[in-house]
Amino acid sequence: MSILFSSSTLALHTTESCLRLVHVILDDFEHLRYGTAAFLDISQAFDKVWHPGLWAKLQRILPHSLYTLLTSYLSGRQFRVKYRGTYTPCYDIHSGVPQGSILGPILYSIYTADIPVMDTTLIATYADDTAILASHVDPVQAAELLQQHLRLLETWMKRWRIRVNETKSTHITFTLRTGAAPPVYFKWFTHSSRDMRQIPRSKTGHPTHVEISHPLQTQTAGCASQTYVLAHRTRVATLLAQQTLVI
Hints:
It is built from seven helices and 15 strands. By secondary structure, the chain is of the alpha+beta class. The protein has a seven-stranded mixed sheet. The protein starts with a strand and ends in a 5-residue tail after the last helix.
């Protein structure tokens, strides 16, 4: 199930990407599978675009004239800080794309367009948010498929100097069956050590369209596992009509 739903490549809105995820989750409910998903937030996404990496990708896809224009657009930028009427010296900017500009989101989309995909998982992206979903009748196998994709993502992020915000990322299991998929782990968090870290389980409140079963303690102290169980089919119908998904 190699599917990349990207707002940048397919011109999808947030709700459309969300509905596609909902469709797969509902299919997992229908066939009594475990859908285990990692929702990742890229840390300071637009500010941390590595310029040499972006230039390398632009050079592969653009004519030389456009490539030269865009590298000139990003080169030679500086910043300084004003504090109580006093300015710091100017410093060169070596990463990031201008936020609020028309080209900013386009350049970021080009920078992340080669995010790795797998035939056995679904990946949906919108701006700096990424969702990866793996489905299987065996929760252990579902978690292993998700973990395989996360390993690919680690290698890719390390190469292109992208980090994930741990506090804004979460791991959720969607199922009609009892139990939850095992924890999954990730290394390339912001300010983390080189050791693998468990992606935090969801700690949100009760969304309108799902119920949360009793928490199952995980191997990491302070993290609880929450299995999301479909409450009523009518609630899902309402959800689809509203075109929203609360995570």
